[in-house]
Specification:
By secondary structure, the chain is mostly helical. It has 11 helices and no strands. Helix 7 runs antiparallel to helix 9 and helix 9 packs antiparallel against helix 11.
Length: 273
């Protein structure tokens, strides 16, 4: 007897891998943010509990920190803007200097052999040493802070961009050179798109570094800015003000990182993730 054939059952649809298909964010992309948020909430609660059992000058409560934060934002908005301006100006100068030297070293290998050892020696010098040198050698506050920031950030831009340019495959270079482009066309058509991810990564790293360096520089050799505000708070033994200034610095860095991340997502849409 012939067996009766059962109709084939349709296979269940497979889950899409990308949020553009599913209309939502994958769990593996949501989990780190959820875990970070939970961790921050737990730490904030533990801090508040600790403030109940300790004096305000040791562990201030969140209400006292919020009052200090509001007062600082009202009394010293110029200090915050000044610190942000110092960081942005120094990063732009450091990027232009680092990118220019990186292009020169890429086109002239002999220049790289002479300058890279010097750059690595400069990177080995601690930040506090550069600050002390600047305080002892120069009198202008703005020049001191800018010099320290450029000396710290420019070598990172230089090394990152030089390594990215040297990482361009030789086959790509030979293929593009068959079209006989000029130096500007070669850089615009091949080198710049290849090194652009490294440029953005270098900016994200240097933003975090520059915020820390400018705070130390203002702490030691300035009479304005967030670093100087920390000095004033330390002289007054105000932990709440120190914590409020710290929150301002963290907020500045997070906003700057979000701006670079937005530019990265806009300019690198071709990437898979």
């Amino acid at each position: 007897m012939s067996q009766k054939l059962e109709p084939a059952q349709p296979e269940p649809p497979k889950q899409a891998l990308h949020p553009e298909v599913t209309g939502g964010e994958p769990r593996e992309l949501r989990a780190p943010w959820q875990d970070s948020l939970r961790t921050l909430i737990v730490l904030a609660l533990l801090w508040e509990l600790a403030s109940w059992w300790t004096p305000d000058y040791v562990v201030p409560g969140w209400a006292l920190i919020a009052r200090s934060l509001w007062r600082l934002l009202q009394d010293h908005p110029g200090w915050i803007a000044l610190t942000c301006g110092r960081v942005l100006a120094a990063l732009m100068v450091g990027f232009l200097a680092g990118a220019g030297l990186a292009i020169g070293m890429y086109r002239h290998p002999r220049l790289e052999r002479y300058l890279v050892p010097l750059i690595r020696v400069l990177m080995a010098v601690p930040v506090i040493c550069w600050i002390l040198f600047a305080v002892l050698w120069f009198s202008g506050t703005e020049f001191r802070i800018s010099l320290v920031l450029v000396l710290v950030c420019a070598p990172i831009f230089l090394i990152d961009l030089l390594d990215a340019m040297k990482g361009v495959p030789r086959d790509w270079l030979e293929m593009v050179r068959c079209l006989r482009p000029g130096p500007v066309d070669l850089f615009r058509a091949l080198i710049l798109p290849a090194v652009w991810p490294a440029v953005l990564t270098s900016w994200k790293v240097n933003l975090s570094l520059a915020i820390r360096v400018v705070t130390i520089a203002e702490l030691v050799g300035a009479t304005s800015g967030i670093g100087y505000g920390l000095t004033v708070a330390q002289s007054q033994l105000s932990i709440a003000d120190i914590f409020a200034w710290t929150l301002i610095l963290v907020a500045i860095l997070l906003v700057a990182q979000q701006l670079v991340g937005w530019l990265e997502r806009r300019s690198l849409r071709w990437r898979a993730a």
